[in-house]
Structures are given as structure tokens and as C-alpha cells.
Amino acid sequence: MFDFETIRADFPLLTQTVNEYPLVYLDSAATSQKPLSVIKALESYYSAENANVHRGRHFLSEHATRRYEDTRTAIAEYFNVQRTEIVWTKGATESLNLIANGLTSHLKSGDKIAISAIEHHANIVPWQELAKKVNAELIILPITADLVLDSNECAAFIREHKPSVVAVTHASNTLGNITDLEPIITACKEVNATSVIDGAQAAMHLRPDLNKLDCDFYVFSAHKMLGPTGLGGLYGRYSRLNTLDVYQTGGEMIETVSLTHSTFRDAPGKFEAGTPHIAGVIAFAEAIAYLTALDFNGMRQHEHTIFNYAIKQLSTIAGITIYSHKENNIGNISFNYRDEHPFDLATLLDGYGIAVRSGHHCTQPIMSKLGIPGTVRASFALYNSLDDVDAFIKALKHCIELLD
Ligand code: PMP
């Protein structure tokens, strides 16, 4: 059972007031809030457990190493993959850069890399840089008029153009629109394209079974999954992961070093140079435990209810344009009011304690497609309530009165 009241009470930050109004946090697509268990784990790590991992024989170091590696097992179980297929990074951005750099020696001049127009900049720019480096060609996958990857068209496009890499999002951060990945991944396998899925937005809301999805790479951000900031990771099918070129080099990722030559560990070790975000990883175990203990279907049902209610309420306001897909959505709504600048609306909403995001959301190609400078984005998560939606809509109506 999904016990909303108990869940809400687990997130201490949500009880505060902002500008003398109860905070309504509608910015979970940027970063999720953290349950008390995660916050306590961070405190406990620094007050009683702090030590570096992997290189000590003393009690604290071995303890930290065990907990660090246990979290790797926990996230592997969450995604239903092997623990050796998980690499820790500082976020989805670093994960995508690691993969794009790691594919350098696998590509040759004239190869094709396929991306889409609804990607976050983190899933565009690393591919542009890789394309420049190896003289590859970037090709753009088809999307529908309502800004969803057109999966069957994408599959046909992949079969026709035979790219070496296909990098697509599982859900758009700006719009929330969910990609039907299966036909795309099937087509990738047929043409032996490396499939890279940006799961930064979807990993918490959709809890994907990566064994079933059968993609080559899937990246995630811990801080968008109730975990600490500065932490993310990636899943890589072991045979592909282990053959990626190394990204960052230095301590920890090596097997042997002489003054003129070094050898590297196998994955995942060879992708984790230097001292990692140990506290973050250990605290992230609590976030994974929290998510895993939830009734997943209950959570999705709750998120659907909140999202549908918000869409319904927004749709009744004259002058509001909603850009997000209204059914196939993880819970992010992008909208504008007439031609008011989204920054102005977001600033006015903040005056009522409503935390929404405004701008291009690191998706300038979406804004070009829509012919607008940006949107206001309200994004929802498991700890939001119908009351949050009511407060948001009420404040929005006040803001509109001020603007009109
Ligand atoms: N991809 C998507 C879809 C995202 O929403 C984000 C974060 N906004 C990223 C990639 C980058 O994640 P991070 O900032 O955690 O590196």
C-alpha cells in the first residue's frame, strides 16, 4: 500500500515556509528532496564512519569500502543487472561524457551518431564533441508533433541509416514525455548500434528493469532519485562497458604503474579514478532502500493522480498553453501563460512559496522547435499532494491577475 501521509512526513524540508507561505516544491525534475534516512546516513557517515575506500586495512576503511560496494549491489538489484556493470560518477552528465569519450576508439570517420531533438544538453553536447573528434556524422531521430520520440519511425530510421551509436532519453526533463524504448533498442541490436539511454528523469519514476530493456548503457543521477547531490552512475552491459576507453585516469583505476606505462583494472574499477563521493554513495543506499520498499504501483498511481489533476486544473485557465504530453508522462508539466516571460511567472509564483523552474531547462532544441524562449515547469514526485496542486493553481491565478 502507498501510505502518502507517512511518506510526506519522511521529507523534513517540505514542512518549511517560504515567503510566509507553506513551501510547495514542484521542482523534483531538477533535484528530488531527500528522506530523513538519507540525511541521517550522511550525518552518521561523517560523524562515525569517515574513511577512504579500497586502500586501507584498518577497520573504518574496510567498513566504508563494504558499504560503498554494498550500494553498488543495491542499485544493481534496483535495475536488475550485475553489480560489476555499475559505475559511480558525479551525475548523469559525467556518465554521458564517460560513455561518449569511452567510445572514441570504437568509432571511425563517417560513422553516424543518432540523437533526438528532445534530449537534455547533457545528451547532446558530448556526442557533438565525439563527432568532431572522430569525424562522425550526427543524425537526428524523428519525433512526433507532440514532441515524443516516434519509436516505430525511429526504429525504421535506425535500420535505414545504421548509426554506430543511438543516444536517447527515457523521459524528457522539460516535458516529462516518456519514450517507448523497446522498438528503438531492438532496431539498435539489428544494426549493432550501441544504445545509450538517458535515464536521469525516468530512473525513479519508472524503476526500469534494465535486464529486460536490454540496452547497452543507461545513465542515472542519484540526486533525482532521493539521493545526495554530486552523485550518479551508469549501467553498462559488461562486454561493452569493459571495452570502453578509459575516461579519467589516476589513482585507484590502475593495476600497475611504471614511469612510462600503466595498466588498468577491469570495469567498473577502471572508470572510478580518485577518491569517489563515498558519503554520497553510502547515503544513496538509504534512498534505494526507500524506493524499493515502496509499493511501486501505488506510487505510480499516486503520481498519475497528482499529474492528471494538475493538467485538468491548468487546462481550465484561459491563456495557458501546455507543451507536455498529457498522458504519457512521468510528471513534468511545461507551460506558459500567453506570451509572458516564464521567468516573470516563476518569480511571481515564488512569492507564494511555489517552487517551479523556468527557462529552457537545458533543452534549447525543444525551445527552437516550439519557437519560444522557455517554459515554466512544474514537476511532481511521490511526496506531492493534491493540496500542493491546489496551492499552485490558486497562486497561479493570483499571478495571472497581477500580470493582466
Ligand atoms: N539528462 C536529463 C534528462 C536530465 O534531466 C538531467 C538533469 N537535469 C541530466 C541529464 C543531467 O544530470 P546531472 O545534472 O545530474 O548531471
Automatic annotation (TrEMBL):
Native source species: Pseudoalteromonas lipolytica
> What is its cofactor?
pyridoxal 5'-phosphate
Swiss-Prot/TrEMBL keywords: Pyridoxal phosphate, Transferase
The lineage's top-level taxon is Bacteria
Q: Which InterPro entries match?
A: Aminotrans_V_dom, Aminotrans_V_PyrdxlP_BS, Cys_dSase_SufS, PyrdxlP-dep_Trfase, PyrdxlP-dep_Trfase_major, PyrdxlP-dep_Trfase_small
Could you tell me which residue ranges the Aminotransferase class V domain spans?
Answer: 24-392
The similarity comment for this entry is: Belongs to the class-V pyridoxal-phosphate-dependent aminotransferase family. Csd subfamily.
CDD domains hit by this protein: SufS_like
Its Enzyme Commission number(s) read 2.8.1.7
The protein depicted here goes by the name Cysteine desulfurase
- Briefly state the protein's biological role: Catalyzes the removal of elemental sulfur and selenium atoms from L-cysteine, L-cystine, L-selenocysteine, and L-selenocystine to produce L-alanine.
